Amino acid sequence: MWFPPFARLSALGFASLPIVLLAAQGKGEPETPKPYKITFRVQGELVLEDLQGQKVSLFEEAFTKSEEGKVVAIVFWSLHDPQCQAYRARLEQYAKDFPAPGVRLFLVASSYDEIFSPLGDPLEKFREFVTKEKFALPLLIDRGNRIADDFGALTANHAFLVDRQRYVRYIGGIDDDPRGERPETVRPWLRRATEALLAGQKIADPLTRPVGRKIKRAPKVPPAGKESSSGGSPEAPVGISAAAVRGKPQ
User: Fold this and answer.
1) Model pTM score
2) Using CA atoms, how far apart are residues 250 and 241, in angstroms rounded to an integer?
């Protein structure tokens, strides 16, 4: 006996419909385009190495190990950038004012010319710096600048805030006074964005302009050797253009 198409589907009780819909949805969550932008969701884990060569998962450290973790702050950092040295005290104060587990701050070194050397211990110069300067902030190594590429980081001092749901909420500079010359009138972008995020409020300036040494990308096929701090000559600090941040300069 012939049944119209809808009658045949009804006779099956729509049993096959969920299977068809699930197949059409594909496998898992759709992949977020890269580099990440404001409101983009970070995919997967962010795994880097510390100065002892141990793997560190940023989200696991910040969120999985503590129900109180709310924000991951990532600031790209350079061994040879004078702006990084000028920002050091401000970042140390930031870490004190926004302590773990609520906020986890990670500094990330990505420049290939700083973390590659054909000879010696790959991380020795970084460890020497940390020991000599009593540098207490967590410093991680981004081999092949993979994390820098995923986030579209262009310079040292480029800062990113990611919330517990792994959405990017802030991209930009630490503040608008990289040399620390006008503390009375400085606009502390990163600090204000963190305060707003913790309070569940809208971030007033979610997109600002970082200033710092340009992150040098690794070659497609690196030469034989190990990644290390090479002591190469630093490039001049550069500022990101207004077009690059796609918003009104702050």
Assistant:
1) 0.77
2) 11
3-state secondary structure of 112: helix
Tokens of 20: 């068809």
Q: What is the pLDDT along the chain (250 residues), one digit of tens a residue?
A: 444 444 444 444 434 433 333 333 345 567 788 999 999 999 999 999 999 889 999 999 999 888 899 999 999 999 989 999 999 999 999 999 999 999 999 999 999 988 887 777 767 889 999 999 999 999 999 999 999 999 999 999 999 999 999 999 999 999 999 989 998 999 999 999 999 999 999 999 999 999 999 999 988 765 565 554 433 334 444 444 444 444 444 4
Tokens for 178, please give them.
């990289």
Give the ranges where the chain is alpha helix by DSSP (H). Answer: 5-11, 17-25, 58-59, 82-97, 112-115, 124-133, 146-151, 189-198, 242-245
